[in-house]
Amino acid sequence: MTLAFFAIAVGLVLLVWSADRFVDGAASAARHFGMPPLLVGMVIIGFGTSAPEMVVSALAASQGNPGIALGNAYGSNIANIALVLGLTALIAPIAVHSQILRKELPILTVVTVLAAIQLWDGEISRIDGLVLLAVFCGLMGWAIRQGLRHKEDSLGSAVELELIQHPMPLGLALFWLLLGLLLLIASSRILVWGAVVIAQGFGVSDLIIGLTVVAIGTSLPELASSIAATRKGENDIALGNVIGSNLFNTLAVVGIAGTIHPMTVDAQVLSRDWLSMAFLTLLLFAFAYRGLRINRVEGAILLACYIGYTSYLVTSVFGG
Fold this sequence. Notes:
The protein has a single domain (52-151, 195-318), classed as A middle domain of Talin 1 (Up-down Bundle), CATH 1.20.1420. By secondary structure, the chain is mainly α. Helix content is 84%, strand content 2%. Helix 2 packs antiparallel against helix 5.
């Protein structure tokens, strides 16, 4: 058991570090090959910050641990809104400027409803997974077209400034890209192994471990990048990280996991976890559109929601 706890700690640290290196290398390499800054932000950074969830869930599904795969995706969505945006808004209120980001919030709400429809029959089949991936590809194509129509989008400007301030030679960028990807896979294997051992040792479901320990760990890149972006005044990156990551988790992460291995879904996933995710999504929608900002009071409300949700999970397991 001690080795399992150590594996989770090492796996999480290595996962976050390798994801950061992967994003840096991929963004710089894409810029060298002429990709517009906006697409670097939307595609490369968006995929990169969600890479931990994707790799962990894919490995968990392939190894027959669907609870970790699904719990990681939905738990990360809950953590992204309530924990990441809550803490970020407490540090500095988050203004919402980008037209693209404001369009994505309603889409996130619709995608959340789609998740409920698929959970209703108690399973995520391969067909469900393929549908999610098809919707994800369609949304990515739409977002790219919309982005290229608005050349002056603030997200693209912020990414361009970041790439100019921190240039990286192409060779070094490709090195970090490859090394980051390899370490992502290795650290994910370590993390999943430790999570399964701990779940079995304490007699709890791998779903609970996925919703808590694994979800928090894989959300650390979003937390770090959102706080850093907000302190620099780059609000679109902070909010874009969360909206993009939640879309990615709900569609691509669950879609990939379901396609690899169909998942039987516990009824509590819909009545407890999806409901919490949907409530927080609507709350974010209301906060962002009311005055186009998320202030410190609203950040405190989001953080309190996360503390309450996590406390309920822990109590339900250890409180009898």
